[in-house]
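QA checklist item 7 of 12: single-chain prediction sanity check.
[x] sequence parsed
[x] length recorded as 285
[x] structure emitted
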Amino acid sequence: MKLLPLALLLLLFACSPSAPNSETKPEEATLPAPLAPPTSPAPAPPPPDTLPEPAITNPDAPAIPSQAYLTGKFDPIKHPDFVKVAAKYTDGDPYVLHHDTYAGFEAMYAAAKADGVKLVIVSATRNFKRQKQIWEAKWKGQRLLEGKEKANEVYPKPADRARAILRYSSMPGTSRHHWGTDLDLNALNNKYFKLGEGKKVYDWLTDNAATYGFCQPYTPKGIERPQGYEEERWHWSYLPIATQLTNYAVSQMKDADIAGFAGAEAAPEINVIKNYVLGINTECL
């Protein structure tokens, strides 16, 4: 056997793979470098009309009600914020109230009962549809005003007829009874509250109702309350909700928005928002 030439041996040695560095782990030597994550362009901002509403920073802030709520154009029986009134509190008719109003009334009822005074709800929430029935019956003379006048005969001009009905009945869409915050107690007659048991009830309410959040919005008219409905000693309003809704109604509604019933054309002429929605006892604002 012939020995390979020295030059050939050197060449073969130079071409063979070298041994790994003893200080480097084999898996580290062969691990591929990680790939950089793919980059994608930032998403374009949504157009202005699809931007989400800003988050509410104050969780206790009341939600702004819709105009449908303010004007009573909903079914309170189906509304999640309304509850049925227990029969023991009423004159026998089925009523519903906003659940906060109801809780306030129950506390007031218990306190009155402890003092020997019985409070009876004789009217509560009335939506637009129900208020329209009452209003139009008076507007068309089917229901007498204060039991003695046919409005369509005595007041031929729309503005005069509206003012006559508004002595004691609200235009549909403007009634505080739409909100579930207002209720009528014991009798719908001021004379009842001036003598005997009625006076006892009224005196107790004027002394104690505010403790439970209630206020009489329609006090006697005079210098302090020159506009609005006549006195209603039976009508009491739950202020923790009603005050907010009064403010919303004034800021969001206009006289021209009051529509959908006979005589609605008189609303702008008589300034129904200013003179009636706001024509209340200043202690109830």
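[x] summary fact logged: Confidence is low (pLDDT under 50) at residues 1-43, 45-61.
[ ] second reviewer sign-off
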